[in-house]
Amino acid sequence: MTTSPLETRSVLDLPALDAHLRGVIDGGVVGPLTATLIGGGRSNPTYRLTDGARSWVLRRPPYGHVLPSAHDMVREFTVIEALGGTAVPVPHVVHLCEDVEVLGATFYLMELVDGIAVGTPEQAEALTSAERRRLGFDFADTLAALHAVDSEAVGLAEFGRADGYLERQLRRWQRQWEASRTVHRPEVDELLGRLRNSLPDSRFPGIVHGDVKLDNVLVDPADRGRIVSLLDWEMATLGDTLADLGILLGFWDVPGETPNPITRGLAALEGFPSRDEMVERYAATRGIDLPDVDWYVVFADFKMAVIMAGIAARHANGETVGDGFDGVADMTSTLLARALDQASRSSVAALRHH
């Protein structure tokens, strides 16, 4: 099997890493380091690192061009560290390295959590129907627990600015689209017009994860209906917490509907709660009355379409690591069509028409 120049470049410089970690990790590094790329690496390349005695997870930004402010390792490390003493299940962080001379980019290490991935239909099919149902509700509870965290109390008061969050998000993702797009798509202009005209008032500020899907959780091997870790915090900030609910619902497939091309019908498997049940559980756990959340769901699909366009652009330029990129460009079209369809069926009049 031949190795592309990028794949060669993506192999971690283990001698440099070993020399750096020996001075900063409690207990030091025992034996020679080995590293294995985890998953497809469509976003941040993630490695399992071991010295033969202990194992860690190493996260670094993508190789090649990345969008401005995306893939910020310092943000991810900061929020995981801050949430360590809360009800939100996160890994224990070990070390942040901002010296780009070590690996060519900022990176961090965290503990390797003993958990099972359930982010694909194939993985979730290994669970029983009852386990899937408990997992769905635990996911809603986990999100509600995150949104109940007092950002100031955990040292994240300066982590972002909740005021004007939705307006800034719209502008940001419009810029991201313009930076990533390879063809003109009139449906993007249509969607942006509708989203601007129907911008909701933000009533529930707090810590926002930014990428809420089952692909970013691990479940307990001994209790597969219970989440032991919520991962991938690179988009976390302070903002409108209902944006996270919109993302969860955008990824929450239901029987009989066109599935999200990323999740491929995952939550439509037997046992998982319905979208309505997820919304009801989340609202009950948080103790809030929810407004209409259509805007947040439409925006979630639009945002994911932009992210897929960015990944497709990097892949076309040979700047991605690992597998799993076939059809990514087609996902952009599917997500934009879903967003327009959802907007056109919304009870929010300004979302239905530009």
UniProtKB/TrEMBL annotation:
InterPro entries: ACAD10-like (IPR052898), ACAD10_11_N (IPR041726), Aminoglycoside_PTrfase (IPR002575), Kinase-like_dom_sf (IPR011009), Ser/Thr_kinase_AS (IPR008271). It comes from the Bacteria. SUPFAM superfamilies: Protein kinase-like (PK-like) (SSF56112). Residues 35-270 form the Aminoglycoside phosphotransferase domain. This is Phosphotransferase family protein. It comes from Rhodococcus gannanensis.
